[in-house]
Amino acid sequence: MKLLWQYLKPYKKQLIIGPAFKLSEAILEILVPTLMAKYLIDIGIASQDTAYVIKIGLLMLALAVIGLGCALVCQHSASVASQGFGTNLRGAVFEHICALSFREFDTFGSATLLNRITNDINILQQSVAMIIRLVIRAPFIVLGSFIMASVINIKLGLIILATAPIFALIIWLVMRKTIPLYRKIQKKLDKIALVAAESLDGVRVIRAFAKKDKERAKFKDTTEEFVSMSVRVGKISAILNPATLLVLNFLIISVLWAGGIQVNAGGMTKGDIIAVTTYISYIMTAMLVVADLIILFIRAGVAKDRVCELLLTEPDITYEKAHEITAESNTVVSFEHVGFSYTGAEKALDDISFSLKKGESLGIIGGIGSGKSTLVSLIARFYDVDCGAVKINGRDVREYSREQLHRCVSIAMQKSHVFKGTIRENILQGNPAATEQQLQRACAMAQADEFICLLPDGLLTSCEEGGSNFSGGQRQRICLARALIAQAPILILDDSSSALDYATDLRLRKALASDYDGTVITVSQRIGTIKHADKILVLDDGACVGFDSHKNLLRTCETYRAIYASQTKREVHADD
């Protein structure tokens, strides 16, 4: 709870004012039955004094109006505090998620991260509002009603007190059964979010292969699991209200029976019986509120644990040092006995060593799953190596600040992601301070100007979610322009031209060779895309099996020769 308190701390004023005014309202409310019984009924009505009855009635009305004012102040304080707390916490969680490395993203998964930042925080936000509005009021109404009833008649007060252990037992049994179930429900909700997200992302594939019925059945099974678990916990939670009402109704019967005996004996008045019965109705209403609060706080406890688990997850990649990226070495990028593996998997890279000098370009090729994308992710430090070192300009990438490293390395990802907005906004994400000339140059180099100039709104054309209104090749060129406009010394193209036709790919490579002033590292499945690079790195099952020029690799690397032969459909010749 200490972790979450820092996001609620700015609203200490509301946390004090809200409960204070709610307590004032409760005090005024508790006075009403006594005024009604002792004064209105036993004195005013009994003596048929109309003026006295009007006087007490006006007093009770004044108490109600003041109570309403107190309730409104409390409601305002609860709204300000809960909404502010939710906003602060949600912002902090989002910022923390953005600081996580790809390894943590892989561990949590996007579905549960989305649920924790929305559903779980909404539950916590609701709980804060209920704490201010009802946590003080409901117990005070129960305690105050018991005290007032005891003041009127101690014997009836003891009857009310005798029911307290029964209430405690009911609450304990419900909590014991429901807390573990609510944890499972949240996990089921994560699973629903995952299945739904996968189906929505892959809707074109689902329709193309006529798998709508299969996906519908999969989603139905997932939701039915959630419904089954929710119904189960709902049945247990539903016991709380009727069990509470049952005990309270027995309490009313007992009080009326015992009170009737005392009235007949002259030990109590009719007004006393009405007041005590009213106080029991107050207790009944408050106990039902308490029952609902307990269910809410059980859910909030689960949500708190999930949010805190996320906030307490330390990113395994931290940026503490801030060395300037200077030309300390003639080597731009070097790998020194690098090993890396994903969580719960075998090694993705094993003992990789190579170096790339200034002015040299690098091509990376290999079979599916050979570790190509993993290798370039280590340069941008999306992951940290398990062993060895990745260096830029002779300095370990772990010694640079995030901003310095990302100014030095620009990457066009394997999956082209276009954000909702305009083409211009998407490209300028690579360099918000870029001039119009730099923007046009980046579009020209990426061959994006070929289709942008044909659009009615040009660079101001809207991009739908995920860039769904563009073809795969158009999305790739927008992402290439975004990487190029950063003008970083190291440009990584992670199979980012796979959707381009050969002619466009050729023009792109020529533009990079002539106009881009930096080191280009290209990952590709095509020999033709990387054959003109100064050095080519050949990977096979996470190991480096070749590092040389195209011609030398044809002579010395069997894996490279096999790839070349499969793509060119001819034997290797000396002049290749």
List keywords for this structure.
single chain, 576 residues, alpha/beta, ABC transporter transmembrane region fold, Rossmann fold, 6-stranded mixed beta sheet, 4-stranded antiparallel beta sheet, 22 helices, 12 strands, 65% helix, 11% strand
Q: What is this structure's SSE topology?
A:
Elements: H1 2-8, H2 12-45, H3 50-99, H4 102-108, H5 110-135, H6 137-152, H7 154-162, H8 164-201, H9 203-208, H10 212-238, H11 240-265, H12 270-311, E1 331-341, E2 347-357, E3 362-366, H13 372-379, E4 387-392, E5 395-396, H14 402-408, E6 409-412, E7 421-422, H15 423-428, H16 436-445, H17 449-452, E8 462-463, H18 472-484, E9 490-494, H19 502-515, E10 519-523, H20 527-530, E11 535-540, E12 543-548, H21 550-556, H22 558-568
Parallel strand pairs: 3-10, 3-11, 6-9, 9-10
Antiparallel strand pairs: 1-2, 1-4, 4-5, 7-8, 11-12
Structural summary, described in words:
- With 576 residues, this protein is of the alpha/beta class.
- It folds into two domains: 2-311, ABC transporter transmembrane region fold, CATH 1.20.1560.10; 331-568, P-loop containing nucleotide triphosphate hydrolases (Rossmann fold).
- The chain has 22 helices and twelve strands.
- The chain has helices at 2-8, 12-45, 50-99, 102-108, 110-135, 137-152, 154-162, 164-201, 203-208, 212-238, 240-265, 270-311, 372-379, 402-408, 423-428, 436-445, 449-452, 472-484, 502-515, 527-530, 550-556, 558-568; strands at 331-341, 347-357, 362-366, 387-392, 395-396, 409-412, 421-422, 462-463, 490-494, 519-523, 535-540, 543-548.
- The strands form three sheets. Strands 6-9-10-3-11-12 form a six-stranded mixed beta sheet, sandwiched between helices. A four-stranded antiparallel beta sheet has the order 2-1-4-5, covered by helices on one side. Strands 7-8 form a two-stranded antiparallel ribbon.
- Helix 6 crosses helix 7.
- The chain is elongated.
